[in-house]
Write a structure and sequence with these properties.
The protein is of the alpha+beta class. It folds into two domains: 85 residues; 82 residues, Gyrase A, domain 2 (2-Layer Sandwich). The chain has three helices and four strands; from the N terminus they run H-H-E-E-H-E-E. It has a four-stranded antiparallel beta sheet with strand order 1-2-4-3, with helices on one face. The protein is rod-shaped and about 185 Å long.
Length: 182
C-alpha cells in the first residue's frame, strides 16, 4: 500500500530554515552594529588623546619659545656688552697716546735753539708754530720731526724773520700729517 502524506512538511522545514536565517541575519546585524559602536568609541578616545597631546605639545612649544626669546635677548645683550668693552679697551689703550706723542715731540725740541709757541691738532693734522734761532736750526728741527714715528709727513707752511727784544729770530709754521693709529 502506498502512503501519502498530506501534511506540508516541506513548507514547515522551509519556514524553520527561514526563521533560522532571519535570526542569523539579525544576530549578525546586531554584532555588526555593536562593532561599529565600539569602533566609533575607540576612534573618539584616540582623537581625544591626540588632542590632549597636541595641547600639551603646544603649551610646551610656547614655553620653549619664551625661553628661546630670552636666550636671544641675552645673546644680543652679551654682544652689545662685548662691543662696549671692546670700545672701552680701545679707548683705554689710546687714552695716553696724544700725551705720549706730545711728550716725545717736546723731547725733539732743542732747548736752547727753538721755542714752541703753539701746537694745534685737527683730525690727523698737527700745526706747529715756533721761533728758532735761525733757518738752519728750524730746518734741522723739521728733519727731526720727519723722522718722528707718529708723523707721516711734514710741510713748511711759513717761515719769516721776526725781531724779539732786539734779537732777530726765525718764526716758522709746520704742518704735519699723522700716521693712522696715532
Amino acid at each position: 500500500m502506498i502512503k501519502i502524506n498530506l501534511l506540508p512538511y516541506r513548507e514547515k522545514k522551509k519556514k524553520e530554515n527561514l526563521v533560522q536565517q532571519i535570526w542569523i541575519f539579525a544576530g549578525s546585524f546586531i554584532v555588526f552594529i555593536l562593532l561599529l559602536v565600539w569602533l566609533q568609541v575607540w576612534i573618539d578616545s584616540s582623537i581625544s588623546d591626540l588632542k590632549s597631546q597636541i595641547k600639551e605639545s603646544e603649551d610646551s612649544l610656547v614655553e620653549l619659545d619664551k625661553k628661546i626669546g630670552n636666550l636671544d635677548q641675552f645673546k644680543n645683550e652679551k654682544k652689545e656688552l662685548e662691543q662696549k668693552l671692546g670700545v672701552i679697551a680701545t679707548l683705554e689703550e689710546n687714552r695716553l697716546a696724544p700725551v705720549k706723542t706730545l711728550d716725545n715731540l717736546a723731547l725733539l725740541v732743542p732747548s736752547k735753539d727753538i721755542w714752541l709757541i703753539k701746537i694745534t691738532q685737527k683730525g690727523n693734522s698737527i700745526n706747529i708754530e715756533g721761533i728758532g734761532r735761525d733757518n738752519v736750526v728750524a730746518a734741522e728741527f723739521m728733519k727731526d720731526i720727519e723722522k718722528f714715528d707718529p708723523i707721516k709727513s711734514v710741510d713748511l707752511v711759513s717761515s719769516k724773520k721776526t725781531e724779539i727784544s732786539g734779537i732777530t729770530l726765525q718764526q716758522f709754521v709746520f704742518s704735519c700729517i699723522l700716521k693712522k693709529g696715532f
